[in-house]
C-alpha cells in the first residue's frame, strides 16, 4: 500500500507539472510563431494615422479616442521646419529616438540587456519600421489640441538632433541626492500666440521618462485640450521570449491595466475590441506586457494635482493593438500657463521600480497561481544575491534555507520511511507465512505498523511539500528578468535556459537514484522495477528544464540523501539495541 502511494505521488507530480505547463501555454502562449526579424535601421516611419482624433466627424475606422469636446481648426504653426530627422537620446540605460513630428518615441534600445545570450547587440524594446511596429505616442487633442487639427501631427522645433548625459544637469532627487537629469525640450507655436513645449525628462540610472506639455497661452482666447498617451503594437511575436527548451512557458503577451481598486488586469490582443478597456481612474496605468519586459503609461498631474484619466483600448484600422489614456479637459485662460504630464516606462520588469510607479504595475511580473510561494522564493534569492553576487550560488543557498524550514516535517517522514526499511524483512516473512490469505496479511501488517509506530503514507509528505516549491521556482526563473542570461559557473552561463551539455540533469538523475536506494523497496518485483525506472524518466524530463531549476533539485536531493542516511543509521541502530535488549 505504502509503495503504491509513493509511486502514485511521483506520477502525479510528473503529470501535474506537465499539465500545468500545457495549460499555461494554452492560456498565455501567443499564436503567432513567426521568427522575429533582426532589428532594422532606425527610420522616420509616419504613424500619424494611429493617433487620437477628436473630430466628431472622424471616420469610423479612425484609431483615435474621442475627446470630450469637438475639435476646431488649429491655427497653423509659425515654424516651417522641413526636416524630420529623428532626435537621438542616449543615457546610461537607453538609446532612444523621437520623431519631431508629433514627438512620438519610435525606437528604444536597452543598453544593459542583450538581444540574445550570444549577441552583444542591445535589446530592442520599441521600433517602427516596415517589419515591426511598437511605439509610444502622446499628444494634445480636444478643442485646441494640435493633434486634432486636419493638418496632421504638429512638427516640433528642437535645439539639436542628438542628446547625451553630457547635456544633463545635476538636480536633487526626492532623497536629496544629486543625480544627472537630462531634459529634451520640443517647441510648437501657433499663429495666434499659443506656445506648446513638450519635454522629455530622463534621470541617470532610471527607466521612467516624464513626458510633459506646457501650454503657454498668449492668445486672447481660452485654450482647451486633453493630453493622451498610448502604446501601439502589432501582432508580432514576443522578442523577449528565449528558448529554455521544449517545455518553455508561453508567458503572457498582450495588454494590461490597473487602478487602485483593481490592481492588475490582463487584456489579450484578441479582446482589444470585444472586451475593450473603458475605465476612469486616478492613479491608474496601462501597459503592453511581454516576457521579461513591459512598456507602460502612468497618467500624472495638472500642476501639482493628480488627475482622473480615462483608460482605453482599441484596434486600429490596420489591426494594430492600441492601449492608452486620455486626461480630462485642460483649460488655459488667456495669458496663463498650464502644465500636464505623464510618466512612460519601457524596460525590464524590475519589481522594486514598478511598484513605486503605480499600484499593481509590479504584478506584470506574473508568477501564476503559486505567486505567494514564488514571491517568497524571489525575495530569498534577492537576499542571497545581495550577499554572494551570483544567482547560481543564491539558488543553492535558497535550497538549503528551504530544506532547513521543512526539516522538522521531512525528518519525521524520513524516520517513518527508515522504520519501513528496517521492518521490510519482517513484512516479507509475514507475506510468505500467510500466503494467499490477503485479509490476514493486511491485519498482521497493520498491527506491525502500529507496534513499530510507522505511518505507511508518511513517505509521500516530502514530495507533496516539494511539488509547489518546484513549480513556483520554475515561474520565478521564467518571469524574473534578473535571472535572464544569468550565469553560474563553468558551462552554465544562463540559469534560465536548459543545460547545454545536459550534465546537471544527469547528476539530478544520479542523486534521485541514490535517494531511492535509501528508501524501503517495494515488495512486489514489478513495482520495484517500475520504481527503478522513475529516475530515468525524470532525468529525460529535466533535460529540457532551466538549469537553475535542475540545480535546485540536485541540491535538494543531496541534502535529502545526507539527512536520510543519518536517519536510517540512527533507526537501524535503535532497532538493533531493541532486539538485543529483548533477547
UniProtKB/TrEMBL annotation:
It is a multi-pass membrane protein. Residues 391-569 form the Membrane insertase YidC/Oxa/ALB C-terminal domain. Residues 87-378 form the Membrane insertase YidC N-terminal domain. Residues 53-65 have a biased composition (Polar residues). The chain crosses the membrane at residues 7-24, 391-410, 454-477, 530-555. The keyword Transmembrane applies. Residues 53-72 are annotated as: Disordered. It is found in: Cell inner membrane. One of its GO terms (biological process) is protein transport. Keywords: Cell inner membrane, Cell membrane, Chaperone, Membrane, Protein transport, Transmembrane, Transmembrane helix, Transport. InterPro entries: Membr_insert_YidC, Membr_insert_YidC_N, YidC/ALB3/OXA1/COX18, YidC/Oxa/ALB_C, YidC_ALB_C, YidC_periplasmic_sf. Required for the insertion and/or proper folding and/or complex formation of integral membrane proteins into the membrane. Involved in integration of membrane proteins that insert both dependently and independently of the Sec translocase complex, as well as at least some lipoproteins. Aids folding of multispanning membrane proteins. Belongs to the OXA1/ALB3/YidC family. Type 1 subfamily. Interacts with the Sec translocase complex via SecD. Specifically interacts with transmembrane segments of nascent integral membrane proteins during membrane integration. This is Membrane protein insertase YidC. It comes from Acinetobacter baylyi (strain ATCC 33305 / BD413 / ADP1). The gene is yidC.
Amino acid at each position: 500500500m505504502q509503495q503504491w502511494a509513493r509511486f502514485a505521488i511521483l506520477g502525479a507530480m510528473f503529470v501535474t507539472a506537465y499539465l500545468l505547463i500545457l495549460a499555461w501555454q494554452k492560456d498565455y502562449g501567443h499564436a503567432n510563431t513567426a521568427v522575429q526579424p533582426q532589428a532594422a535601421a532606425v527610420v522616420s516611419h509616419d504613424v500619424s494615422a494611429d493617433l487620437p482624433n477628436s473630430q466628431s466627424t472622424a471616420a469610423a475606422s479612425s484609431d483615435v479616442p474621442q475627446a470630450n469636446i469637438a475639435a476646431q481648426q488649429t491655427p497653423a504653426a509659425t515654424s516651417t521646419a522641413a526636416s524630420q530627422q529623428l532626435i537621438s537620446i542616449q543615457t546610461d540605460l537607453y538609446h532612444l529616438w523621437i520623431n519631431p513630428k508629433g514627438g512620438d518615441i519610435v525606437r528604444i534600445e536597452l543598453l544593459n540587456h542583450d538581444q540574445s545570450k550570444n549577441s552583444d547587440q542591445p535589446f530592442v524594446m520599441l521600433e517602427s519600421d516596415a517589419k515591426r511596429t511598437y511605439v509610444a505616442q502622446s499628444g494634445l487633442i480636444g478643442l485646441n489640441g494640435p493633434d486634432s487639427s486636419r493638418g496632421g501631427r504638429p512638427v516640433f522645433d528642437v535645439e539639436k538632433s542628438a542628446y547625451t548625459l553630457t547635456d544633463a544637469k545635476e538636480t536633487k532627487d526626492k532623497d536629496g541626492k544629486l543625480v544627472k537629469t537630462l531634459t529634451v525640450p520640443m517647441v510648437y507655436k501657433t499663429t495666434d500666440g499659443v506656445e506648446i513645449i513638450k519635454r522629455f525628462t530622463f534621470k541617470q540610472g532610471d527607466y521612467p521618462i516624464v513626458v510633459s506639455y506646457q501650454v503657454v497661452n498668449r492668445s486672447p482666447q481660452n485654450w482647451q485640450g486633453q493630453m493622451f498617451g498610448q502604446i501601439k503594437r502589432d501582432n508580432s511575436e514576443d522578442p523577449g521570449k528565449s528558448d529554455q527548451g521544449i517545455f518553455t512557458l508561453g508567458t503572457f503577451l498582450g495588454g494590461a491595466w490597473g487602478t487602485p481598486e483593481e490592481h492588475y488586469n490582463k487584456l489579450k490582443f484578441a479582446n482589444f475590441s470585444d472586451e475593450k478597456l473603458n475605465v476612469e481612474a486616478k492613479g491608474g496605468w496601462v501597459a503592453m506586457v511581454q516576457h521579461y519586459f513591459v512598456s507602460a503609461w502612468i497618467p500624472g498631474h495638472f500642476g501639482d494635482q493628480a488627475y482622473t484619466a480615462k483608460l482605453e483600448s482599441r484596434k486600429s484600422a490596420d489591426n494594430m493593438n492600441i492601449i492608452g489614456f486620455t486626461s480630462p479637459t485642460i483649460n488655459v485662460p488667456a495669458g496663463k500657463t498650464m502644465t500636464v504630464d505623464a510618466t512612460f516606462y519601457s524596460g525590464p520588469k524590475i519589481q522594486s521600480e514598478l511598484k513605486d510607479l503605480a499600484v499593481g504595475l509590479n504584478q506584470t511580473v506574473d508568477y501564476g497561481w503559486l505567486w505567494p510561494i514564488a514571491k517568497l522564493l524571489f525575495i530569498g534569492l534577492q537576499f542571497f544575491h545581495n550577499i554572494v553576487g551570483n544567482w547560481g550560488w543564491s539558488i543553492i543557498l535558497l535550497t538549503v534555507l528551504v530544506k532547513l524550514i521543512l526539516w522538522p516535517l521531512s525528518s519525521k517522514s524520513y524516520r517513518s520511511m527508515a522504520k519501513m526499511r528496517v521492518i521490510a524483512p519482517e513484512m516479507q516473512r509475514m507475506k510468505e507465512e500467510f500466503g494467499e490469505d490477503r485479509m490476514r496479511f493486511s491485519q498482521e501488517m497493520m498491527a506491525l505498523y502500529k507496534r513499530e509506530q510507522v505511518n505507511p503514507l508518511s513517505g509521500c509528505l516530502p514530495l507533496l511539500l516539494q511539488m509547489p516549491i518546484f513549480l513556483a521556482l520554475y515561474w520565478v526563473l521564467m518571469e524574473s528578468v534578473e535571472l535572464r542570461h544569468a550565469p553560474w559557473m563553468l558551462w552554465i552561463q544562463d540559469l534560465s535556459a536548459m543545460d547545454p551539455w545536459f550534465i546537471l540533469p544527469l547528476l539530478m538523475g544520479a542523486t534521485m537514484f541514490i535517494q531511492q536506494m535509501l528508501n524501503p523497496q517495494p515488495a512486489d518485483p514489478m513495482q520495484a522495477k517500475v520504481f527503478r525506472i522513475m529516475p530515468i524518466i525524470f532525468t529525460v524530463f529535466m533535460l529540457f528544464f532551466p538549469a537553475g531549476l535542475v540545480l535546485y533539485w540536485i541540491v535538494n536531493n543531496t541534502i535529502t540523501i545526507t539527512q536520510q542516511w543519518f536517519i536510517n543509521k540512527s533507526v537501524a541502530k535503535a532497532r538493533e539495541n531493541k532486539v538485543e535488549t529483548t533477547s
